[in-house]
Amino acid sequence: MKNFILALFLLPLTLFAQPDDASWLNVTVQTDNYGGESSWEIINSDSNTVAVSPPLANNMLTNTMVFLPAGDYAFIMYDSFGDGICCQFGQGFFGITNTCGLEEFNYEFATAIDTIPFTLEPCLPVLLGCMNEAADNYNPWANQDDGSCEIIECDSLETQVSMELTLDTWPSETGFTLVNIADGQPYEQVIPGEFDFGDQLVTYTYDFCVALGFELILVDQFGDGLNGSASGGEDGACVITACDSVIWELEDLAFTEFDDGNTMYSGAIFTEPCPPAPDVFGCMDDDYVDYDPLATVQDTCETLHTWGCMDPEAFNYDSLATISDNNSPCSITLTLEDDAGDGWGMSGIGMKQGDQQWLFTIGPGIFSESWDIMLDEDEEVDIYYFQDGGQQSSAQELAFQTLHNSILVTNENGDTLLAEGQNPFFNNGQGALQPFKAPSWPVYHFQPYCGNSCEPYSYGCTDMMAQNYNAEVNTEDGSCYYQAGCTQAGYLEYYTQGYEADYDNGDCQTLAVFGCMDEEAFNYSPEANVDNEGCIPVVLGCTNPLAFNYNSTANTDDDSCIPFVYGCTDATMFNYDPEANAEDGSCIPYIYGCTDSSAFNYDPAANTDNGSCEEVVVDCMDPLAYNYNELANEPADNCLYDAGCVTGPGEPYWLNDMCYAWVIQADPFCCDEAWDATCQDTYNYCSSTGIESILAGDDLVVYPNPVGNVLNINQKVDIDVIDSNGRIVVSKTNTNAIDASLWPPGMYLVRIVWNDRVVVNRVIK
Description:
Low-confidence stretches: 1-19, 390-400, 423-435
Number of helices: 7
Structural class: mainly beta
Strand order of the largest sheet: 13-12-15-19-18
Oligomer: single chain
Distance between the termini: 113 Å
Number of strands: 50
Helix content: under 10%
Strand content: 25-35%
Shape: elongated
Mean pLDDT: 82
Radius of gyration: 65 Å
């Protein structure tokens, strides 16, 4: 909403024909210390808002120009805090005025809202400018002549002289006087100080008529003339021309003459009337190719201009064209800039093309504003600077005001058509062509141009018989098509549309499924939507390749399959199988013998018993054993043998007592020396534990004994080795091997801790 309201104020003052019932209004506001609390609006008799304030800052003086039709209005001042702007926190005020006598001011606004009703009478502002249409600087908006008209009309005995003065970096030091030699009266005079800082390196042109000659006096108060480079700046210049040629030029920029401490140049320059210009014969009609802008006498015009496209890269290039015909009308963008952000005050610019006229300005707080305007390309546009003559601004004030302003005109292609003004931020810091300068405002001109009639190449189908004929294109690109449809063989529509399309129009929707569509065929596919012409007829038979009667030509099983029954099909064989239908090579002949597996002479190869079986006698069959049985035919594990030990619990000592054999193997002392209590304890442990558990590793076994280099234990244990003197020679934990290579020969006790019990063995080294 804020942007919209602001736009109301910033709208250009557009006058196609200035209405007689209009009036300009100047709104003045001085804020207090809290300017952000303040705002204003103007409403008409229908209570509609017609203008609003720009953003207001603390202790800020603003003058806002408003252009309204004549009628009844109300000016409303607001303070959001409710204490007004006049009294406690700064001395603020507000009011409205115009050039026709309207003046309403309020210095006592100390509330939240204050309203001033007023009536606008028809009143146009005083617009100063040159009102002589013959002058170069004629201003069509001016309604009060300011004496600035630039008209030079010399008589036959006079010479028109032009002086171009370019100021150096310090312009306020410079002044000049041009004196008529004939009567001693000055043509032009500028005293030092009239030029200000805004005139740096600016060139001013002064035109005047001379009968005999004139005296030029140049003055510089600092003493260095126009030699600005001598003080670290840039130089100026002064050139005088007459009769289209230079008649004098300042060569010594420092001047050479001195007067009261000032640097001064003074010299007389004499002139003669310019010789009459010779007649120049030629075509003076610019509608012809042979038009001569320098011609003064009409001569034959032979060749009319031919309008057309002159771009050889364009489709409609006309090699016979002599003038490019432009596009009209054309949209241009006008941009007003103010790098100081203080607005253009009661001044602005006027733009004129033919009978069309526009006025533009921007208010305070706005650094840049742009407008789009439709113009005719065939007619030049004039731009004038104007100011409200009712505002009594000094030349210095106006110079400062306009120093920061600039104008930019661009076309819809972004090309710059006009760039004027002295805004240091204008045009990316590149500056402008010349500054605005009071009191003689220059008139600016530009030719609208946004392009020509050249038509670029556009490609498409140009055949009117094609379905995709495009009347908007001008060049055939081979894209024409005549039958639109599905062009992809992977889709059903490709086969069902009835024709071959040459352009895919998106009809391809259903993926094609190829297959046999004959329901009576062996390979019928219910999912198929395109017949592949590969249907196979039904062939009945056994289709199981593992069956006895498998039919390789059949594709449809008829439940006739007979399984293979493998076996011996020879009726003369022992294992003949009358159910078998396939010989498997398993036929076994009859083999006669004892078939009783419990008999002594059982023949496992025999398959037919012949009554020869003998009873089995199981007993010791070793003649060396004490219990040898000569009738035995099956050995038993009961043979008894002498262990050969010298002592023991009884005689004989039977080696086949497994616990006894384990004890004397583990502890030869028990066989070779004596069967002592240790031997008996070991034997008792074996008897209670079971020799099978010991040999299976469920118990401890220490070996070999006698030991050589390494003593092994069949479990991971904690172990101490004690010699005959009771000293521990080895102590290890969680081990199953002890290095005994360095033990002296003798008897050792091995104490083992395993599974929360202690076991002691005797070992000989």
